[in-house]
TrEMBL record:
One of its GO terms (molecular function) is peptidyl-prolyl cis-trans isomerase activity. The keyword Isomerase applies. It comes from Candidatus Muproteobacteria bacterium RIFCSPHIGHO2_02_FULL_65_16. This is Trigger factor C-terminal domain-containing protein. One of its GO terms (biological process) is protein transport. Keywords: Isomerase, Rotamase.
Amino acid sequence: MQAELARMREISRAAGPAGAAPRTEDEARLRPFARRRVALGLVFAEILRARDIRPDPARVRARLEQMAAEYESPEEFIRWHYANPEKLSEVESLVLEEKIVEDLLATAEVVDRAVGFQELLGMEPTTT
């Protein structure tokens, strides 16, 4: 979790005013988000392992092409990603997340039930 917290601090620092020192309250504010991201990463990793999901090269290429369409030199953008394993890994992660969601939705059992207005607003967990 410390690595994720450090990554989030760095992103926050880069987005803030130049030369601004990190504040203690920033870390306290970021800690729950870092904990959630780490937990989601662990859940996703287990789903990938259990369902033997791998990044599909054709789908990664299609995602890169979609992203590259926004740039002046799309082919250069694509080549740059393939030449930088870290950047390519980021796109593969996006594709894997999409695949996990698709896989879960395809196998999910949907149960309709009536809920009260207050429960809906409060999103109170109930057992059915």
